[in-house]
Every structure is written in C-alpha cells, then in structure tokens.
Amino acid sequence: MWYNIDWNRLAAEYMPTYLRKPVWLALVRSIFRPVIHLYNIWYEWRRSNVYLLTHTGQVFSLEKSLNDHFDIAQRRIYLTDGYRYERFYIYTHAEHRPVYLGTKYLHPSSDYADTGVDFIVWIPASLSGNRLAIQYHVNRYKEASKRFKIAII
Amino acid sequence: MYKDRTEIKKAMTGAFMENALIRDIYGLRPGKSFEEEFSKVSLENALFDVMSYAGWLFQQLFTAHKSEVEELIRRQKAGTPEWYRYKTLQFQKGFDLKEGSDEFDNAGATAEEIEQSKIIKYAAVTESDEPGTLIIKVATEQNEELMPLDNADIPAVETYLNRIKWAGTRLRILNYLPDLLLLKIRIYRNPLILDENGTDIRTGKKPVEEAIKNYLKNLPFNGELVLVHLIDAIQQVEGVEIPHLITALTRWIDPSTGGYGPWETIQVKKIPVSGYFKIDTFDYIEYVV
Q1: In this complex, which of A11, A38, A59 lies closest to B164 when CB atoms are compared?
Q2: Which of 110-129 (A) contact B at CB < 8 A?
Q3: pTM value?
Q4: What is the rounded distance in angstroms from the CA atom of residue B260 to the CA atom of residue B253?
Q5: DSSP string across A12-54
Q6: pLDDT (tens digit per residue) in B77-107
Q7: Of A58, A117, A148, the CB nearest to B165
Q8: Under an 8 A CB cutoff, do B100 and A62 touch?
Q9: Contact (CB, 8 A) for B107 and A71
Q10: A47 at the B interface (CB within 8 A)?
Q11: Cα(A41)–Cα(B66) distance, rounded to whole angstroms?
Q12: pLDDT value at position A144?
C-alpha cells in the first residue's frame, strides 16, 4: 500500500549506480536512520487515526473495538441497554399508604429508569483489572450524553 | 508545501551555496548555482537527491493521509434522526450484516433479491418525550396502499437496529395498523353536477372521496394532516360549492390493548401515531343543496 515504505531499499535504488558501493550506501542509510524513525512514528499515528475514525460508538463497532483491545482471542465483551426498573416506594405509618412487599429485589441506583445508565458494558471477570482502560476506551467512542457502566458477566 | 521534488532539492542546495564556510572550502564562485558548480555524478548531488526524495515522500504521505482522514470523517456515522431513517429503510429481510459493519452482506445476491428483501418502504424517526429514546415508525406497501409490516419480521428489524444504533440510544419501533380517520363533512353541492350521493352525474365517479384519498396519499409518511388543507383540496372539486367540516375524528392502536383506542377529535392538525391515516368510512359526508 501507499503507506508502506522500505526506506533502506529505496535508498539503495535511488542512489546512482556508480555510487552503489557499500560505503556510500552505509552513508545514505545512516542519513535515513532518523527519517525511518520519524516514518515509524507517523505510521503508527496513521494506523491509530484510521482505526479511530473507522470505529464508532455504534453497538457493533464499540463491541468490536473493545474486543480488539482487551479480549482479542475470546471476544467476550458485549453491550446491552441499561436496565430501567421502576422505583418502588414504601411509606411511613402516618401516610396511611400500606404496601404489601411480597418479594422485592434491590438494585443499584444505576439500574433504575430515572437515575440509570443508558447502556452496560459486560466484561468477563478476568478483565476487571482493565476497568479504567475500558472506561477510557468507551468514553472515547461513545455518543456524548450517554451514560454507561461496566459490569462483570 | 513543495510543488515537487526539485523544489525541495533547490531549497537544500540554495542554503548550501549560500553558506560562507562551504563556499570557502569548495572555492565556489559567487553567483553560480549548485548545478553549475557540482557535476551530476558528484556525491554531493547524489546525497541531496536522495534526501530531497525522502522529504518529497514524506510530503506525499502526509497529503495522502490528510485526504484519507477527511474522507473518513465525512463518512462518519452521524446518528441523526435522518441517518436512523435511512438505515431503517436499508433493512434487508433474510440477509446478515457484514462482519464489523452496519451494511448488509449482499454477496451473491441478485439486484432483484436485494430489492425484494427491503421490506420497509416507509420510515419516520422522531425523538420521544422519554429521554434518550427514538421512535421509529415503519410501514410497507401493498397494491399502492400503506400497511404495517408482518409482525413476524419485527424481531429481525429490532435486532438489526440494535446492532447498528449508537450505544445507549433506546429505540421504539412502531409497526401499527393505520390511524383511522372519520370525517364529518357537509358539502353544499351544485345539483347540476353532483347528485345527492356525491356522484358526478356525468362520469359516475365520486370526486370528493377521490380528492380526500388523493390528499392523504400525497401526505408524506408521518406527515401532518392539516384540516384546512384537506378542505381546500375538496373545494377544488368541480360541483362543490362550500365544503363545511363538521368534525374530524381519529383513533389509533393502543399498544396496551392491541386494539384501536377511542375516537378523538382532531383540532386543526394531527400527525398520525402509526405514521399514516386510513379513511374509516365515507358515510358521514353529506351532500346538500
């Protein structure tokens, strides 16, 4: 591709034939040493630019880039919508609003409709050490205003 | 930006020729150019050549990458309502998405198969009152008449949209039967042209009903029905002296029951909940002299 350049070969090919002696080639290659270094930095920079631009906060894309970065082999990370539980209230005696509890489940506040998150990033327990990096990654790609949390599968 | 490689080389050789120390060492004559003082086969020339080539290559790399990035930014998925609408219309029944893409894999399918798999003919996207939720109204077409999609196809549409949507956006897909429209209109007719049933005496057609149907058909999907405009359209019919709207009622599918809700009066204008209207009956249009 146009962005792959073999500088050493290029240096040799670009020298006139009568100067293609080991000592002159060594000279040109030495001159090219920092050029190659800069080129490598540029190459990486281009690669990450293109990756960043071709991946978005769309569900399939975010799942792909998360797995590319954190779970390359097993690809277990996935996204779901956040929960939207209704709140359940109980009242003080004076309010005269008796409520029969039955079985009730307690949820973290991020799982309720009014305070909840918009989506959940599910990661395997073995990746919990990468939580911060994953959070940074999602923040970079997600749509502004969308709230999320990371949960263990 | 340099125009070409020679320009880069000139920048180097120019600086080289100006340098007093260099001029002393080489014994260069003032006012002479690099080409005049150094032979083409000299090592100096070869070195400047190869280095200007490296600079030129770098410039080309940067330029190419710049336009590449600009193109990618231009194609960035916007996530606007219009984009969601476009994507909804792109849905293809029975096709899978390309790996890591929001486009369908059409490899090996004929143009006809692709056309047939696009079952959603109409779509409208609006933002819901619920935070972070988009309402996507869909409909298809049969014999030039709008109708809901087969409910069996909706899970596939949902899965597709949930894959390609921006993470965290909620989508609600409405695939309802049309909103019913009941018009109570009194038409003051010209008895020479229209009979008491609204039939054109000469052609035997019902021009008022046709005008209403035509008006509804020309409404965009999820477009607003404006009663005054409807009446204007009826006024255009030959033989109609005064079209007087008494009431316009509408009802739509109530998702909690699955059936139609109660009739409600339309004030001035109305966007159909399902995205489109269907005339319930023309029985309430009376023709008087």
Answers
A1: A59
A2: 117-119
A3: 0.74
A4: 4
A5: HHHS-GGG-SHHHHHHHHHHHHHHHHHHHHHHHHHHHHHHHHH
A6: 777 888 899 999 999 999 999 888 888 999 8
A7: A58
A8: no
A9: no
A10: no
A11: 16
A12: 83
CA angle B257, B261, B266 (to 5 degrees): 155
State the DSSP code for B220: P
Within 8 A of A57 by CB-CB distance, chain B residues are 79, 166-168
pLDDT for A67-116, tens place per residue? 999 999 999 999 999 888 888 888 888 888 888 888 888 888 888 877 78
CB contact under 8 A, B164 and A60: yes
Q: How many CB atoms lie within 10 A of CB B100?
A: 13
Q: If you write DSSP's letter for every residue of A98-139 in order, what string do you get?
A: -----S-----GGGBTTT--SEEEEE-GGGGGGHHHHHHHHH
Residue B138 has pLDDT above 90, yes or no: yes
What is the overall mean pLDDT for chain A? 88
Token pair, residue B229, equals: 């405009």
Cβ distance A59 to B165 less than 8 Å, yes or no, reads yes
Q: In angstroms, rounded to a whole number, what is the distance separating the alpha carbons of residues B18 and B31?
A: 10
CB contact under 8 A, A58 and B47: no
Contact B97 A60 (CB under 8 A): yes
Residue B57 one-letter amino acid: L
* DSSP β-bridge partners for residue B125: B136
Burial label for B261, CB within 10 Å (0-12, 13-18, 19+), is middle
Structure confidence by residue, pLDDT tens digits, B11-36: 988 888 888 888 888 888 888 888 88
What would the two tokens of residue A63 be? 């799942």
Q: Which of A45, A59, A66 to mutate to test the interface with B (most CBs of B within 10 A)?
A: A59
Q: Which residue of B has its CA nearest to A45?
A: B65
Predicted confidence at residue B140, as pLDDT, reads 92
Q: How far apart are CA A103 and CA A98, in angstroms?
A: 16
**Amino acid type, A79:** L
CA nearest B84 in A: which residue?
A58
Give per-residue pLDDT as tens, B30-72: 888 888 888 888 888 888 888 898 889 999 999 999 998 888 8
Report whether pLDDT(B209) > 80. Answer: yes
| Per-residue confidence (pLDDT) for residue A26, from 0 to 100 | 85
Q: CA nearest B74 in A: which residue?
A: A53
Judge whether B183 and B279 are in contact, CB under 8 Å: yes
